[in-house]
UniProtKB/TrEMBL annotation:
<dbReference type="Pfam" id="PF00929">
    <property type="entry name" value="RNase_T"/>
</dbReference>
<dbReference type="GO" id="GO:0005829">
    <property type="term" value="C:cytosol"/>
</dbReference>
<protein>
    <submittedName>
        <fullName>DNA polymerase III subunit epsilon</fullName>
    </submittedName>
</protein>
<dbReference type="GO" id="GO:0003676">
    <property type="term" value="F:nucleic acid binding"/>
</dbReference>
<dbReference type="InterPro" id="IPR012337">
    <property type="entry name" value="RNaseH-like_sf"/>
</dbReference>
<feature type="domain" description="Exonuclease">
    <location>
        <begin position="40"/>
        <end position="205"/>
    </location>
</feature>
<dbReference type="GO" id="GO:0008408">
    <property type="term" value="F:3'-5' exonuclease activity"/>
</dbReference>
<dbReference type="InterPro" id="IPR036397">
    <property type="entry name" value="RNaseH_sf"/>
</dbReference>
<dbReference type="InterPro" id="IPR013520">
    <property type="entry name" value="Ribonucl_H"/>
</dbReference>
<dbReference type="GO" id="GO:0045004">
    <property type="term" value="P:DNA replication proofreading"/>
</dbReference>
Amino acid sequence: MPAAPAAVRPRFAGTESRQLYRLDLKEGPTGLGDPDAPNIAVVVDVETTGLDRKRDVIIELAMRQFRYDDAARVTNIGQSFTWLQDPGRPLTEEIMKLTGLDDDMLRGRSIDKEMAARILRRADLIVAHNASFDRPRVEDEIPDAAGGAWGCSCVEIPWRHFGFDGRSLGYLLSQAGYYNGAHRAAADVDSTIALLAHEVGPGRTAMAEMVARSSQESWMCRAVGTAYERKDDLKARGYRWDAEDRIWCREVADRDEEQAWLMMNVYSPWARPTSAAPEWRKLTARERWA
């Protein structure tokens, strides 16, 4: 939607206002800490033809490297890389409106997978704002980059705890004092870096929160063999339905506590399970979000 002229006040505007700055993420040292800090992160974003992992494909891939010090301050921002890719079929009207891409822009284009893999393999941590969506698609497209450590800036930073409302990228960015005009992969990458660099407490960045949380081990619980009647209990507990495997899953930090709850509420004989216990898989940043 076009911006209103500066002189026109919104109909229901109050007496107070807030200024937002257009995000301009420049390449080079940020002026914080050592620009040659040893830790390297790469932020990634993709645009796709749809949400189906098996059927839909990447049409835009963007990534940008930055260095961060041991306090997780962003000290040096690298070059922005963007590739377009021809999906081999026309885009839908919905996808064209969402991404700003069209068939002419994509025709004959392809991702430099060798270069993209080199960038990703150099990273100590790969970050996406929706890592559960981006990671599987990036690793499907670029298998040579699979197996890296990933973090999710949407989930692994407790935004509400720090006074933010919501978790959508654009809304978080505006609460940090910026706006970004385009919904394109490269713009979303820059928005994510700006949020990671934002101080959520005195001397502590959002990046520090994500690094701390992504480095912790956790457990993926797969509640196999649960009765249909237990679905509301599982949902209220925080489990999500995996439609592909047709199973309720939840990532937890404390396996013993979760096992005790499940054995009492889901795997007790009165609950009529068809399995004796859930399945467990240990997760680190190298397995999480895959």
